[in-house]
Amino acid sequence: MAKITAAILIIGNEILSGRTQDLNVQYIASGLARRGIYLEEVRIVPDIKERIIEAVKSLSASYTYLLTTGGIGPTHDDITSDAIAEAFGVSVEKNQEAYKRIEEYYHTLGREVNTASAKMAYIPSGASLIDNSQTNAPGFIIGNVYVMAGIPKILQVMFDWLLHQLDSGPAIESRQINVEIGESKLAAEFEQLQNKYPIIEMGSYPFIHEGRHATTLVLRSENKAILDNAFEDLKAMTHKFPLIS
Amino acid sequence: MAKITAAILIIGNEILSGRTQDLNVQYIASGLARRGIYLEEVRIVPDIKERIIEAVKSLSASYTYLLTTGGIGPTHDDITSDAIAEAFGVSVEKNQEAYKRIEEYYHTLGREVNTASAKMAYIPSGASLIDNSQTNAPGFIIGNVYVMAGIPKILQVMFDWLLHQLDSGPAIESRQINVEIGESKLAAEFEQLQNKYPIIEMGSYPFIHEGRHATTLVLRSENKAILDNAFEDLKAMTHKFPLIS
C-alpha cells in the first residue's frame, strides 16, 4: 500500500508576527500519526492571497492531503476561501447548507445573520462541508484540501470530525526511553542500532535533568514487530545508565 | 530602504510527529519584529537531506535571511551541516575554533571530546560561527543562512547573539484592543478602517471571555505616526463596547 502523506498550511499573520503561539501543528500531527498518515511538511504563510494560492497549489500536488488552518472567519483579513477557490480555478458561492448552519447558531444567540457572518457561507463552488460542533460555521473540502479554522478549539472539533474520513494506514507507533547520560556518549551505539533497523525512524533529543545531561531516544515506525525488537535492543544498550521516568 | 525579510526552516521529525511542541517560531518571530525584519514564511521539514537542501535553496533565494533550527547535534540523525554544505556546493570540514570551544566545554565537565561530539565541529567550508553561551558547540553562518540548534534554550542564546548582527529596519510595532463583542459585529467598520489606512496590517481574532464572544483587534506597522492615528480611530470605533484588559 502506498504511504499516505499530508502537509499542513497555516495561514496566519498572527503566527508570523510572534503574537500567537501555534498549537495546531502538534494537535494535527498527533492525530495523523494515530491514523498512519505521515505529516511531511508544514508551511506558515501570511494573509496574502498570492502566497496562499502558491502554497496550496504546491502542497496539494505533493502530498495525499493538505490541511489548512486559519482565515475563514467573517472579517476582511479572512481571505482563505477566495484564495483556495482561485487555486482551484472555481468561483466562491453561497452554500445554502453552510448558511443554514450559521443562521441556526445565530438564532441560539438571539441574533440575525449580518453581512459579515454571512460571508462565512461563501465557499468554493463544489466544496463539501466540514462540521463545526463549536460555533457551526463550517470548514470545507475541495479536492484533497481540507480547510479549517485557526482558533484551536474550533480547529480541534473540525479535525476530529474529518480525521476518520481520511484514508488511513497502520498507526505510526513510537517507543521512547529517557536516560541520564549525554547524547554524544550514546551516539555510536545508537547509530549502530539505526543501521541494524533501517526502517525504524530513530531520533536522539538531549535535555537537562536535575542539572545533569540526559537524552530521550525515540523509535518510530508503523511496523510494530520490528519496532518492539528494536526497542528491546535499545533497552539492552542503555541498561547501564539511570532511567528517568 | 528595501524591506528586510526572513524565513525560518525547522528541521525536525520531532515536530512533524507531534512529539514536541515547537516554541522557536514565536521566539524568533518576536525578535525579528523588534528589529524591523519581516518574517514571511516558516517551513517544517523532516530530517531528510534532500528535503533540507531543497528548502534551503528555495528559501535562501526568496528572503533576505534564512534562519534554520535543529539537526546540528552529535548523533546520526543530525544531518543539517551536511545538507547545508551540499546546498551551497561546498564540503564539510573541521572548524578548529568550533572544536576548541567544544573541547573547552567538555573539559569543564571533566571529559574528553569523543568522535560524536567532535562531529559538531564539522561545518560547511567557509562558514563563520554563531556563539552558544549555553553549551559552547556553535551554530554557523553561510551566505544568508543562519544555522542554529533546535533545543529552545540553546536556540534562544544563539538567536539573541546573532540578531544584532542582522540588518535592521524600523521596529514593527503593534497596538491592540480587546472588546467584548463578536467579530462579525465589528467587521464592516473594521474593514472601513483598513481601507482608510491601507499600509497598516489589521487582524481580527475572536475569543471567548467569561462565556461571551470577544475580539482582539490588532494593528501593526513600522510607521508609528500612522499606527497611532489608526489606533485612535480604532478606539473611537469600539468605545461603546466593554473593554477587556
Write the layout of secondary structure elements.
The structure is a homodimer of 245-residue chains.
Chain A: E1 5-11, H1 13-16, H2 24-34, E2 38-45, H3 49-62, E3 65-69, H4 80-88, E4 92-94, H5 96-108, H6 115-118, E5 122-124, E6 128-130, E7 139-142, E8 145-148, H7 152-163, E9 173-179, H8 183-196, E10 201-209, E11 212-221, H9 224-238
Parallel strand pairs in A: 1-2, 1-3, 3-8
Antiparallel strand pairs in A: 4-5, 6-7, 7-8, 9-11, 10-11
Architecture overview:
Two copies of one chain form a homodimer. Chain A is of the alpha/beta class. In chain A, the strands form three sheets. A six-stranded mixed beta sheet of chain A has the order 2-1-3-8-7-6, with helices on both faces. The first copy, chain A, has helices spanning 13-16, 24-34, 49-62, 80-88, 96-108, 115-118, 152-163, 183-196, 224-238; strands at residues 5-11, 38-45, 65-69, 92-94, 122-124, 128-130, 139-142, 145-148, 173-179, 201-209, 212-221. The first copy, chain A, starts with a strand and ends in a 7-residue tail after the last helix. The mean pLDDT of chain A is 96. The first copy, chain A, is elongated, with a radius of gyration of 22 Å. The interface between A and B is large, with 62 and 62 residues. β2 (38-45) of chain A pairs antiparallel with β2 (38-45) of chain B, so a sheet runs across the interface.
